[in-house]
Write a structure and sequence with these properties.
Layout: E1 4-9, H1 14-30, E2 40-44, E3 47-52, H2 55-71, E4 79-81, E5 85-87, E6 90-97, H3 103-116, E7 122-126, E8 129-134, H4 137-149, E9 157-159
Antiparallel strand pairs: 1-8, 1-9, 2-3, 3-6, 4-6, 5-6, 7-8
Length: about 160
């Protein structure tokens, strides 16, 4: 019998992220507490740029954006937001969405599977994703539940289960 396998990836749906951005922009334009403070959020290249006249207001803009991401099923583990910094008369936060599993994280996940997973399971790092294979589909299901219950620093999805 051939090996069964699945891939562990970390991807963000770009369309859902764009929808969350547009919803956040609408809410910021309409909310009374954002009137006259120069609050805005926009996409510049691959980064989200949040602006406001004070540090508290720019943090509130970030909070609005985070709530819209969560409503669109995008994990906040995927959002990499920096600290507020002053730029002239306004405060800014630069944020980006993380995609792909970096090498140290991939090694950590592979080690976790080796140590706590069933012995017949093998994990191979392939670029920015991991391929997990085994002869037993039950063992693969066990690995999926192990990874879902473990506290990882990144948002992961399981694809190509065969």
């Amino acid at each position: 019998m051939a090996d069964s396998s699945f891939d562990i990836v970390s991807k963000v749906d770009k369309q859902e992220a764009a929808n969350a951005l547009h919803q956040a922009q609408k809410e910021i334009e309409q909310r009374y507490d954002f009137k006259g403070v120069g609050a805005s959020i926009e996409l510049s290249g691959e980064k989200f740029l949040l602006k406001a006249s004070s540090e508290e207001r720019v943090k509130a803009v970030l909070d609005v954006f985070q709530s819209k991401l969560v409503k669109r099923d995008i994990s906040l583990k995927s959002l990499d937001a920096g600290a507020p910094f002053a730029s002239g008369k306004e405060y800014r936060i630069e944020a980006s969405l993380k995609e792909g599993i970096e090498q140290p994280q991939a090694k950590k996940i592979a080690a976790l599977i080796r140590e706590q997973g069933p012995k017949s399971v093998k994990a191979n790092i392939q670029g920015d994703e991991l391929r997990v294979s085994s002869k037993s589909r039950d063992d693969l299901q066990e690995v999926i539940s192990l990874l879902k219950s473990s506290d990882l620093d990144i948002d992961i999805q399981f694809v190509n289960y065969r």
